[in-house]
């Protein structure tokens, strides 16, 4: 997928895209191996990676975990509708949602609901407690609908 920059500049070329693609697959690649995979020598690849980091295109590196082996394989998506969507209410909700570690992702969305949460727990019983005692108690929550993920067909992690 071609990468376009919001400012319209074209500093990300096909080689940068190849570097990003390889690092997304395996962030632990050595510069030598990364260079081999993208068809350049080590020095230009290292310079490009540094530039991509300095420009904030590459924002960090992380480990990919086996959530099943960690006992956290249960994923549920929760649509949340708020009673108030003025800026102060949104900020209050955003701040409170950040304090719940089981909420892995939180996205403000357009449509019938205001937010979509990705919640990761040990099991459905734990999810029920998180939903009932924490998510439902978030500021300005009017209602929610939950969807249990049965299988990850494609995942970013």
Automatic annotation (TrEMBL):
Transmembrane segments: none annotated. Residues 12-73 form the HTH asnC-type domain. GO terms for biological process: regulation of DNA-templated transcription; response to amino acid. Keywords: Activator, DNA-binding, Transcription, Transcription regulation. The keyword Transcription regulation applies. InterPro entries: ArsR-like_HTH, AsnC-type_HTH_dom, Dimeric_a/b-barrel, Tscrpt_reg_AsnC-like, Tscrpt_reg_AsnC/Lrp_C, Tscrpt_reg_HTH_AsnC-type_CS, WH-like_DNA-bd_sf, WH_DNA-bd_sf. Gene3D superfamilies: 3.30.70.920, Winged helix-like DNA-binding domain superfamily/Winged helix DNA-binding domain. GO terms for cellular component: cytosol. One of its GO terms (molecular function) is sequence-specific DNA binding. It holds the Pfam family AsnC_trans_reg. SMART domains: HTH_ASNC. This is Winged helix-turn-helix transcriptional regulator. It comes from Notoacmeibacter ruber. The lineage of its organism: Bacteria, Pseudomonadati, Pseudomonadota, Alphaproteobacteria, Hyphomicrobiales.
């Amino acid at each position: 997928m071609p990468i376009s920059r919001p400012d319209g500049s074209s500093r990300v070329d096909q080689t940068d895209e190849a570097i990003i693609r390889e690092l997304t697959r395996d962030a632990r690649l050595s510069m030598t191996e990364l260079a081999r995979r993208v068809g350049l020598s080590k020095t230009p690849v290292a310079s490009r990676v540094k530039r991509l980091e300095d420009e904030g295109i590459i924002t960090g590196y992380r480990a990919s975990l086996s959530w099943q082996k960690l006992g956290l394989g249960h994923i549920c998506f929760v649509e949340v509708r708020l009673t108030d969507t003025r800026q102060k209410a949104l900020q209050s909700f955003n701040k409170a949602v950040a304090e719940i570690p089981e909420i892995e992702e939180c996205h403000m969305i357009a449509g019938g609901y205001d937010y979509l949460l990705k919640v990761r727990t040990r099991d459905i019983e734990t999810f029920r407690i998180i939903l009932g005692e924490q998510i439902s108690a978030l500021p300005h929550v009017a209602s929610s609908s939950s969807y249990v993920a049965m299988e990850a067909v494609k995942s970013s992690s």
